[in-house]
Amino acid sequence: MTGVTGVPESLSVSWHSTPLTSAFQLQVGTDSTFAAGLLWNESSITDTVRMVKGFQGQTYYFWRVRASGGGGTSTWSQAFKFRTGFPAVPGLVFPANVQLDLPVFLSLRWNAAVSEIAPSYRVQLARSADFSVIIMDSSSLSDTAIAAPPLQYFTVYFWRVRASNAAGSSPWSAGFKFRTVQVSGVDPVPDVPSTFGLDQNYPNPFNPLTVIGYQVPAAGRVTITVYDVLGQAVDRLVDDVEPAGRHTVPWNGSNRASGVYIVRMTSGSFAAVKRMILLK
Fold first, then answer.
1. What is the edge-to-edge ordering of all strands in the sheet holding 245-252?
2. CB atoms near residue 116 (< 10 Å)
3. SS3 44
4. Which end of the chain is more exposed for a tag (fewer CB within 10 A), N or C?
5. How many domains does the chain divide into?
């Protein structure tokens, strides 16, 4: 295998046996001389095939084999070259690592992963460094930004991203941590609002996900619908009996064209609208 591109995350390499061979040594690395950058260096292999893992995305690798037996050790085979096809690890942009005093409404942003095949992304936001306490896990994202759900004040969060395409997935990026802003004194907003309300979506403009907040003073049926500029309903976000309190609902516009949309909330005699801008 030489000059091959599009290799997946793990790869089975194989070679021919030779007479009087009792074992093989396999080397795989990023240096054509194998003096450095070794990913795999295994000897005493008795088979003629090996599954190699741990590749980095969009990277050239070289591999070679030599045999040993009762008569000694052979010279190394010709080194073959290949390149992985799955994406490189995306770079995190915002929030930066150990960034403090961030708002409780924010969007996560990262750099596009290097990939010949258009990648999609998976994003995780957690309350724990080992990502065992997940509060958001979104996948199949085509954009390099996503609105986080409303966060808690003065709380530490962790986030990471990985990229995927038809050849496989990159490793997770290093997990970045950040802390939201602290609110002093008593929160002036009561737990149970006294009136209905529809908040402006955040972020706005957005691409492709935004979060819409609304409030309900007493339990009752709430309907929240998104319309295009022609007045046609394109998405029904809420249509249920909601308890009293403050609520949020996300809207994903990935399947919609760029432009102005209207979100409308109704409950009994109450009605309110907000203007949203989807920019792609």
1. 197-198, 209-216, 245-252
2. 13
3. strand
4. N
5. 3
Q: Are residues 176 and 233 in the same domain?
A: no
Q: Could you tell me which of 94, 122, 86, 114 has the C-alpha nearest to residue 8?
A: 86
189 lies in a domain?
no
Position 271 scores a pLDDT of 96
Sign of CA dihedral 56, 57, 59, 64: positive
Q: Are residues 106 and 73 in the same domain?
A: no
Q: Sorting pLDDT into bands at 50, 70 and 90, what band is 172?
A: very high
114 found inside a domain: yes
Indicate which CATH number applies to the domain containing 204.
2.60.40.1930
108 and 166 part of one domain: yes
> Concatenated DSSP letters for 200-266?
PPBSSSBSSEEEEEEEESSSEEEEEEEE-TTS-EEEEEEEEEE-SEEEEEEEE-TTS-SEEEEEEEE
- In terms of Cα–Cα distance, which of 89, 108, 87 is closest to 97? 108
Which pLDDT does position 65 carry in this prediction? 95
Residue 191 lies in a domain: no
For residue range 101-124, what is the model confidence (pLDDT) as tens digits? 898 888 899 999 988 878 999 999
Single out the residue in 64, 84, 104 at which a domain terminates: 84
- The answer to whether 255 and 247 have CB atoms below 8 angstroms apart is no
Rounded to whole angstroms, the maximal C-alpha distance in the chain is: 93
Could you report the per-residue pLDDT of 157-167, keeping only the tens digit for each? 999 999 999 88
Range of the domain at 219: 197-278
Q: Is the pTM of this model over 0.85?
A: no
- Please indicate, yes or no, if residue 119 is contained in any of the structural domains: yes
